[in-house]
Specification:
Number of strands: 8
Radius of gyration: 17 Å
Helix content: 25-40%
Structural class: alpha/beta
CATH superfamily: Ribonuclease H-like superfamily/Ribonuclease H
Order of helices and strands: HEEEEHEHHEHEHE
Largest sheet: 6 strands, mixed
CATH class: Alpha Beta
Oligomer: single chain
Distance between the termini: 23 Å
Strand order of the largest sheet: 6-5-2-3-4-7
CATH topology: Nucleotidyltransferase, domain 5
Length: 198
Amino acid sequence: MVSRIINMVKTVEETIRAADRCSGVARSLILVAWRPPAADTLKLNTDASLEGGSGRAFGGGLFRDATGTWRYGFVVNIGLCSILSAELWCLLHGLRLAKALGFRKLEVESDSFIGISMIKGNFEVSINCRAIVQCVHNLAQDFDSVVVNHLHREGNFAADFLSHYAYSFSRGVHTLETPPIGLSIWLLHDRLRISYVR
């Protein structure tokens, strides 16, 4: 099973390279993969999505250790809001859960480039996101260490799965002590550090 997945990824990469050679387009491939945190740190990955047609926002997140092992997760039915606000809400809910669980050192990743840039002070915070970003900054001070980084979506498939899994949940935040069925393949991909072409 594992070797089949690795072979499929290599085949896709080679197909893209061959297509570029035939078209004469010079393109550098970017390989993206989830990376585990340091031994004394937990990694929180979050993501959000909008349900087609309804405009309702959902999200999810998961905590993993240095071996890539699931430690805890959550899904959230946010309601009507923008995708940017939803991404920030998910990150905030993840921090709140981490504090409640007693986690002290976190590495946080989201595929929302603008959201992460706002938190890091590299992008002007829009008026409708100011309160959430301020809550994130305030809450981060309650930990020994919180590092926030952007991760391309190809390295964030596990959190993406949870953001869609949340569609069946009622409003609010719902904690997950065990990973839902269907997430195991993405957890395995990440533990094996399988890269995806961007």
